[in-house]
Structures are given as structure tokens and as C-alpha cells.
Amino acid sequence: MLIAVDIGNTNIVMGFVDDDERIFGTYRVTTKANHTSDEYGLMLLQFLALNKLKPADVDDVIIASVVPKVMHSFTSSIIKFLDVDPIVVGPGIRTGMNIRIDDPRSLGADCLADCAGAYATYGGRVLVIDMGTATTYNYVDAHGTITCGLVTTGIRTASEALASATAQLPEVQIARPTTILAKNTTSAIQAGLYYDFLGGIERIITQFHREIDDDFRVIATGGLARVIETPMIDVVDPDLIFKGMFAIWRRNV
Known about the structure:
Layout: E1 2-7, E2 11-17, E3 23-30, H1 37-50, E4 60-65, H2 68-82, E5 87-88, E6 98-99, H3 109-122, E7 126-131, E8 134-140, E9 145-153, H4 155-165, H5 185-211, E10 217-221, E11 235-236, H6 240-252
Parallel strand pairs: 1-4, 4-5, 6-9, 7-10, 10-11
Antiparallel strand pairs: 1-2, 2-3, 7-8, 8-9
């Protein structure tokens, strides 16, 4: 069994993947730089126990991280509690993807794993959107080449910024509104955030279609992808990064 770990700015998300690429357990914890290796290790053991698994059942661990300051404690926990030296997505790792941007090393490990998962699952000519703390867009052509990308704010990040920069506006739950005709402050913020974010997504997808000659599919993932509803997104795949990490792991073992 493989444990795939996505260490993001807001959450650490783990998935258990068997040899048939079946993802049978996913868990989410808050990303905190001050957690010790023992704390992370105990979390891992608890998640394994929930699936009636033991450390000996774990063959390998692969990590995609965009938070360097968490890596020492987390990798130490894996070595200490699981007796496994994890694979870390980054330079020197075979991914099966070509990266044709100005600085390939600047592409986040999560974006790289998302693209690998999209290409392995859906084939080429895909625009991959990851809706997390930041919202990222990356295009993969028919040959598995990542040719371009775009980064903007996530909807939750916008909500937090609005609450922190104003004196009386509260931070609200991110939700799909039933109407844009809001009649109270909370509903007004929720509807404003949602439709502003939705409009940005649709405009960006439209611009990609204008500037890329080939037709392509749009694959969305990330913690907030299920909230957004638009016919311009072809597939919402919450497990995309785990599929990508499994594909990368298979190439390296």
C-alpha cells in the first residue's frame, strides 16, 4: 500500500492507495509548522488504525509539498513510525511530464502531481485547475508537456482578506448561494465571493480557449472545486493529486 501526502499551505491531505490504484482512505489535517515528528506520527498511526492497517502494511510514501518548513518534521515522522524513506516530488524524480516554462523548478510539486494525474487519467490537451489557498491553472498538451500556467487567489483567501481588511465585515463560510439577490450581510458576502470567483474562472477558461488552438478538456480539483458549478468545467476530480502521485511513484520504483 502507498500513502500519498499533499502538504499544502492550509491543509495536509493524505490518501491510501492500493496496487490497483484504488484510493480507499483520505484524511485532512491543518498544516502547522510547529507540529513535531511525534505528533505527525501519531496522526499517521491513527489514520492507519481507522482502516485496520498497521505500519507494516505500508510499502512506500510519496509526498508533494509546497511548505518547506513542515518537511523536516513530517518526513522524520514517516521514517520513525513507518520505517520508510519517503519519495519527495521534486528535482531528480521521474514524473513522465515535460515542463516547458521559463523556470521548471518554479512549478509547485502539487501542480506537477495534478498535471501527472490529469495526463495519466484523461490524456493530453487538458487544462488543470486546482482550487486551494491559491487557484492555479496549468495546461498539458497532447504529448504530456506542461506548457504554461497561471496563479490567482483562492476564494477562501479572498474571504479572509476581506474580513481582515475591514472593520465590520465578518469572515463567512464558503458556500454556493441560492440567489444573488442577497438580503443580509452574510449572504451578500457569500454571493459576492462566489459569483466573483466563478466569473474569474469562466473568463480565464475562455481566454485559454482563445489562445490555444487545440480543443481541450477542463479538469478541476482541490478542496473548493465541488463548490463551483459551471458547464465550462468538464470533470471535478477530488483525488487527482493522489492519482498523479501514484503515477509518479510507479515510475520511480
